[in-house]
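Today's session is about reading a structure prediction critically. Students often jump straight to the picture, but the first step is always the sequence itself: look for stretches that repeat, for charged clusters, for runs of hydrophobic residues. Only then move on to the predicted structure, which in these notes is written as discrete structure tokens rather than atom positions. Here is the chain we will use throughout the hour.
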Amino acid sequence: MKKPIYFVIGMAFLIILAVTFTVFDESTEIQNEDKEEPEVMITGTPADKYSPDEREQHCGSSNAKTNQYIKEFKIPTPCTQPLSIIADSEGKIWFTQTNTGNIAMFDPTSEEFTEYPNDMWSLNSASMMWGIAFTDDNEIWFTDDKYGSMWRFSIPNEEYSKFEIKGKSGKSSPQKIGLYNDNFVINDFTGKQIVVLNHEKLDDGQYADSTLSVPDGFFTSQAVVDSDGYMWFIMWKYQKEVILVKTNSNTQEVEQFPLPTSIQAPNGVALGPLGSLWIADTAGNSFYKFNPEDEKVIEFVTSKPSVTTYGNASGLIKTPISRPYWNAFDSDGNMWFNQQTGNRLAVFNPSSESLIEYDIPSKNPSWSDCGDMIDCGLSQSFGFAFKGDEIWFTEWVENNIGVLDSSITIPISLETKNKIISIKQGQQKEILVTAVPELNQSIDLILTGNSNSELIKVNTKTESTNVRDQPIEIPVTIFVDENIHQGIYKILIGTQIPDVSVSTYVTVKVI
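Below is the predicted structure for this chain, in token form.
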């Protein structure tokens, strides 16, 4: 039986992902006025917020799954729609349930869930809870876009409190939370502001905010604060204008840096270990590095999504994209980010400029153009959190949480001797990519290439190369069209092996 197509293009997915559109055929309604209404199955669970034919789309399509690197856990209550997630000081995993308003806890040792009912919740629909924070006084704080609020859950008392985010105009839509010097920094996505709330004052029942307003028509990205106390965020209009903002609340300084228009939906912003800002662009395949010293922007493209994520049964999807959404750096200085429509968790090493993209096992076919394809779709994984070598994450439409063990050795790595090459317009150059075995096993691989420009072509061998116990050099040819602009381009060369994609970047200077 064919699955319905629910894949969404552009800003409809980016801005109002939490809203489900139900289209009624008026003529069908008229014809069926005299017919007996079908009996609706009542489950007594959050799944009842959806009609029976919508439940697989929103509540999960399969059991929890496992691959070499990832293990998933099914949440006992159906259709909770988990989103943001964090680890506490004792290693317990906490996450929001957007379809219930509850906070839930998972104990990795016992592998048991505890879900805490929120008696203050009255919504009969999901609310996107993008942001979450754990404080030293054993509290979980999270945002809520439908209520336009910030919530507190006291772990010792098992009690909820709600604090309304006061919008400058209209309803607020708080997203991500950053915790800096006991202050919560929250981007109000559609409310045209960045909000700063003091944790201690909130605990004392005082709502005292400091806000930075942005002009009408702009969305706001995640906000971060550097070691010198400067706040960085992006205000943007989809496909029109993207401005990076640097501000200091003490000195009232504000600097603005126009960013390339190729950045269309910059949701995630993270500070790198050397002071660079890294931006995840949800409207495409790329993430970007901004260097504050020279104000240069460098684009890094991800691997192309697997056909098992988007399906393309209709043939309408010409350029599938991975949609990097949120990003964060771990304690080793590596940047992790989720690929919303790539159905992957990815880690980028800024020093070696290497990329590893882990495939998430679960796939919900209702969010892709799967047709009759088996094992196709998206889990809609958004939130992730670090716990040592483990990366814990949520699957919004599969009702799972999962854990990725980054300490597991990947059987192969890729290297290049010349990380920077110069190519004249209209010419090509061959490079050698070295496949290095990391485990004593035989692997057949085929290299692929990807770039951020259609005017750069990467040609690789079509037959597979066997790698066993010695490094092997594989030729790759990079062709540069004569019409391309001169400049610097990052080319991704990688290979897909079971459950993971392994890649390295080459810098091409077009001269």
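Discussion point for the tutorial: Residues 248 and 434 are 46 Å apart (CA to CA).
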